[in-house]
Amino acid sequence: MTNIKEKLSGVLLCLVIAIPCWLLGKQMPIIGAPVFAILAGMVITLFLKDKGGLQPGIAFTSKKILQYAVILLGFGLNLSEIAKVGTTSLPIIVSTIATSLIVSYILYKLMKMSTNISVLIGVGSSICGGSAIAATAPVIHANDEEIAQAISVIFLFNVLAALIFPSLGNTIGFTNEGFGLFAGTAVNDTSSVTAAASAWDGMHPGANTLDIATIVKLTRTLAIIPITLVLAFWNTHQMKKAASEQGETQYSLKKVFPFFILYFVLASIITTVCTMNGISSAAFLPFKTLSKFFIVMAMAAIGLNTHIVKLIKSGGKPIFMGFCCWIAISFVSIAMQHVLGLL
């Protein structure tokens, strides 16, 4: 009971920040509630003279509630959707994901960047922006400033993509299906995919590009599962190796392996099995919504633990990495469509 009371004030603060940010995100989806929450947390923490009593709850929200959000996120993933996408989009999805991860790894080596920030930007750019960062961050034990940095970079290029890509698509001469594939594979976050595809549909009445882009993006999102599992096993192996080198004989898998990722996979399997047996995917919408809200709460907590001045000063390299990933993904998406004869 004492433990709950100790955390309650900090959790409530994150909740109070999250609610208006959630509503703002509904009004301005191109920015998104998680970005509003991080910014609000960073501004509020400038005026908090003493966070001592709030810190246990803030830490709980940024770590545990983020993990609960990832588990619930699994209920929004239907593994059988891959079959509906068709063979034409899968090579493009795999190519763009691989491109982003390779580019981020090369730049990480060349620029001697933080390992965690590089992983988060690479995964966020290649899969699904904020959701992928939220799922990956606890696995690699990223701190709050690293998460805030990665989210900020992804947000910047989300906005640029939503504003630029519809006009770029017209210039290139995309078909409606081609732009749907391009938006679904070259735009980072789901909200920005929706914004870009909706803008295209507005320019081309009856195009129905939004449906194509959404299905492609959903399939791309499924890559969270293998990537987080690989990172989890790799991180566990590294920690076990470090413990062995330090002469520690006691090694607890339970303490180092992020078991919430297995619950996330289990949730996606439950959703897939249920929908295949006639249960509407709408039944899982409350879990998906709660997951998104928990992410907003966690981002508020991360903002409260982030120094905004330090974040701006250290932002040059991460922004350059995000830019390179963004350009490389866009180029590969267009090139693969050309190779496959879709342009």
Summarize the structure.
79% of the residues lie in helices and 0% in strands.
Task: Give a verbal description of the structure.
The protein has 17 helices and no strands. It is mostly helical and 343 residues long. α5 runs antiparallel to α17.
**Count of alpha/pi helices:** 17
Give me the secondary-structure category. mainly alpha
Q: Quick one: biggest sheet?
A: none
Oligomerization status of the protein chains: single chain
Give me the secondary-structure topology:
Elements: H1 2-27, H2 33-47, H3 55-73, H4 81-85, H5 89-111, H6 115-126, H7 130-140, H8 144-172, H9 176-186, H10 190-203, H11 209-221, H12 224-245, H13 253-256, H14 260-276, H15 285-304, H16 308-313, H17 316-339
Helix pairs in contact: 1-2, 1-3, 1-15, 2-15, 3-7, 3-14, 3-15, 5-6, 5-17, 6-7, 6-8, 6-17, 7-8, 7-12, 8-10, 8-15, 8-17, 9-10, 9-11, 9-17, 10-11, 12-14
Name a few traits of the molecule:
mainly alpha; globular; about 350 residues; 17 helices; single chain
